[in-house]
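2024-03-11 09:14:02 INFO worker-7 job=invfold-0412 stage=load source=structure_tokens
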């Protein structure tokens, strides 16, 4: 049995990426593959506890990063790697790029530390395809305000934080065009879905 494909979905808060997770899963399952949809932080009991802490508590950035990688290591070993080994496609809402964008650029955690933790926690695991949903600050903030939900601590961050995160995502997309595809998430849903299908073609 051939190894499954690992697809990650990234973007700033308010980009609407979570809205399209099911469409992404359906697109991958159209070829008959089993698809596992998961998220980070999260995906296991331990990692969901990490998520609750990281999204609520204003932690010292390095502490938050260490917690995220603890949850990630558990998530990889218990969910992602077994699914890929069984030939399933895995769709993960955020992965290592989010750590570079939020903890790295957003909170100032050194890239060297993130890279070292990634090497130890991920054991070489990297996405086969990453979709980055991109919107300007005005669109993201309007969507978050209109959502009616209680915002977590990252969703409440100021514009400067948002811009650092967004610029890092854009830099990642530019640096890794073979892996990363940029989706204009300010478009209408039908246009976004067409872009998603196009960028997943051939996986």
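2024-03-11 09:14:09 INFO worker-7 stage=emit residues=203
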């Amino acid at each position: 049995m051939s190894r499954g494909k690992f697809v990650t979905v990234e973007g700033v808060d308010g980009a609407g990426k979570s809205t399209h997770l099911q469409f992404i899963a359906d697109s991958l399952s159209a070829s008959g593959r089993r698809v596992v949809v998961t998220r980070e932080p999260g995906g296991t009991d331990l990692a969901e506890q990490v998520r609750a802490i990281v999204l609520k508590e204003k932690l010292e950035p390095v502490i938050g990063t260490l917690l995220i990688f603890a949850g990630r290591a558990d998530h990889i070993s218990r969910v992602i790697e077994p699914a890929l080994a069984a030939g399933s496609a895995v769709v993960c809402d955020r992965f290592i790029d989010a750590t570079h964008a939020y903890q790295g650029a957003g909170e100032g955690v050194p890239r060297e530390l993130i890279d070292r933790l990634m090497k130890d926690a991920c054991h070489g695991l990297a996405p086969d395809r990453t979709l980055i949903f991109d919107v300007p600050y005005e669109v993201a903030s309007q969507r978050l305000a209109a959502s009616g939900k209680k915002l977590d601590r990252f969703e409440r961050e100021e514009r400067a934080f948002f811009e650092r995160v967004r610029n890092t995502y854009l830099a990642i997309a530019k640096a890794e065009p073979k892996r990363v595809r940029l989706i204009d998430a300010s478009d209408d849903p039908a246009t976004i879905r067409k872009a998603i299908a196009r960028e997943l073609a051939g996986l």
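2024-03-11 09:14:09 INFO worker-7 stage=report msg="The CA atoms of residues 31 and 203 lie 10 Å apart."
2024-03-11 09:14:10 INFO worker-7 job finished
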